[in-house]
Amino acid sequence: MNLLVCISKTPETTAKIAFKENGTQFDTDGVQYIMNPYDEWYALVRAIELKESVGAGKVIAINVGPPSNDIVIRKALAIGADEAVRVDAEANSASFVAKQVASYAKDNNIDMVFLGKETIDYNGSLVGGMLSELLDVPYLSYASNIEVSGNEATVTCEIEGGVEIVKATLPLVVSATKGLAEQRIPNMRGIMMAKRKPLNVIPPVGVEEKEAIVSYQIPEGKTGVKLVDLENMDELVRLLHEEAKAI
Amino acid sequence: MSVLVFAEAIKNQYKKSTFEVVLYGARLSKQLGTECIVLTNGNGDSASNLGVYGAQKILNFESENMHDNRMLTKVISAAVSQNGSTVVILSDNSKGKALAGRLAINLDAAVVSGAVALPNTNDGFKVHKSLFSGKAVGSYSLNADIKVISVAGNSIGLEEIGQAVSLESFDASAHSSTVSLVETKRVEGTVPLPEAELVVSAGRGMKAPENWGIIDELAGVLGATTACSRPVADTGWRPHHEHVGQTGIAIKPNLYFAIGISGAIQHLAGVNNSKTIVVINKDPEAPFFKAADYGVVGDLFDVVPRLIESLKKFKAS
Ligand SMILES: Cc1cc2nc3c(=O)[nH]c(=O)nc-3n(C[C@H](O)[C@H](O)[C@H](O)COP(=O)(O)OP(=O)(O)OC[C@H]3O[C@@H](n4cnc5c(N)ncnc54)[C@H](O)[C@@H]3O)c2cc1C
What is the pLDDT along chain A (247 residues), one digit of tens a residue? Predict the structure, then answer.
């Protein structure tokens, strides 16, 4: 069973979010990067577990990005991916990424593609659906559980206020949310082995971009907190009703 | 030309967030000088009443396979080509996001997910979306003949602008599904977190899961949905689907109560777009107070019961 896991690189969760060039570019100055938590904690780990339980096939981590992403890709190898591919290009839009991954998946006999439910920077949640449409396969999104038996997957998908449990035949695309797996911390052996695992760099396929971010803004913060004495909860209720009009 | 809105009915009922996308589509169609067409699996009065939020034409289809986004993509795509639609509007929920990506490819469209306001169509076509889990907002320029937009919940205030419209049926029978539904489980009674207008959230300051009675009671009095911080969900005190923040659910209710939550940057990222924030914390230096509108410094086990009493008095008056 060949499992492809999309991993992306995102600013670390405490990174300062600022923009430059008149608010048209993300200011990367001093920003540390991590693997997108949904990709790392859930998608990658569940793919590794499934491969381990079948005992055959491989887990391939794929990233679209510049050479500086290799450090994040090596981490995926240290956690347990067997090999990795980096498409050597800036990932400027969801469709760009989806088309690169789809092109690789078509040529490489992939049974399932895993990815996180969204990235924590652009929060687009679009790559999975695009990829599924490009591959013309089912897309099981927001999965919190997946079991595979032979050629069939049973997946629990989180929906607003509940879950849908569905069955589909491979190949398919799965996006991962909390619950799909338990985070794995790479151990020393994994880190050593990761250095020897293949990381293939391939050129991108051409894509016509249809969206562009033309400007960024930081939302206005709160102007100051109004403190209410704990003895006076009637006053808090009054403020919430009359001033905030929230109740 | 037309704007096509996909409005999902669940057991022939619509959620508030679905009325919001219909209204969004109606306002956008006015802005563009075109018609607002709604495609829905609902029927009867329930579907006709989408006209109240501005639907001018309502296409009803029947399907047993609403769980299959590949099938739904084909249905929506067929409606787009039959009606010459240039914009497709979806809810930004789990289904809407899956459809947005699929439709963008299927229709060769430009796409943005999680729009927070109506597009600016004066000069090109630009839409605002929240980024970095709420820490920033980006303006997306969409440059293709067809645009697909999923609209974040609570982004547009509801307003009744029209009246019921009679339904036209839309044939979706040609599109079959390859995904079978085993079971749907829904938590009955409470509004799901992403759609809730009132949220009561609690953190590690609660000390132990058995102390959640006062949180449930406060939420009950308000008619609010409960949420929690990540460590609370990770230790199993509360279910995962209550975890809000950068690596949980991002929400923007009208009112957010943060009780015994310190206000770490990853938590704030998912909740700081809430309209009004109330923080209850015994530590006056807790970072959350900087992101709050109202604050109470004190022991939550003392403050929350007092608040419940005051709210009960208010509700009774
Ligand atoms: C990659 C990453 C992603 C993360 N994602 C998220 C996320 O999505 N969501 C999230 O919530 N966190 C997230 N975190 C964790 C985050 O950094 C904080 O650790 C977490 O939010 C703290 O939870 P808390 O406020 O409940 O607990 P604490 O930080 O322990 O705060 C407890 C608060 O309760 C107060 N308190 C204690 N007792 C009382 C009392 N009796 N009365 C009143 N107040 C009291 C204390 O003063 C304190 O402010 C993430 C962290 C990382 C590294």
Answer: 999 999 999 999 999 999 999 999 999 999 999 999 999 999 999 999 999 999 999 999 999 999 999 999 999 999 999 999 999 999 999 999 999 999 999 999 999 999 999 999 999 999 999 999 999 999 999 999 999 999 999 999 999 989 999 999 999 999 999 999 999 999 999 999 999 999 999 999 999 999 999 999 998 888 899 999 999 999 999 999 999 999 9
Class of domain B2-169: alpha beta
Cβ contacts of A133 on chain B, cutoff 8 Å: 70, 73, 101-106
Q: Is the CB of B212 under 6 A from ligand 1?
A: no
Instruction: Report, at the CATH architecture level, how domain A2-221 is classified.
Output: 3-Layer(aba) Sandwich (3.40)
In CATH, which superfamily holds the domain spanning B193-316? TPP-binding domain (3.40.50.1220)
- Name the residue of chain B whose CA is nearest to A38's CA: B247
Residue corresponding to tokens 């099981």? A140
Q: How far is A41 from chain B (nearest CA, A)?
A: 10
- Supply the DSSP string of B34-88, one letter for each residue: SEEEEEES--HHHHHGGGGGT-SEEEE---S-TT-HHHHHHHHHHHHHHHT-SEE
Stretch 23-52 of chain B: residues touching chain A, C-beta under 8 Å: none
Is B307's Cβ below 8 Å from some Cβ in A?
yes
Report chain B residues whose CB lies below 8 A from the CB of A129. 69, 97-105
Tokens read off for B311: 């709210």
Global pTM reads 0.95
CB pair distance less than 8 Å for B290 and A225: yes
Q: Using CA positions, which residue lies closest to atom 27 of ligand 1?
A: B204
Q: d(Cα A122, Cα B140) in Å, to the nearest integer?
A: 11
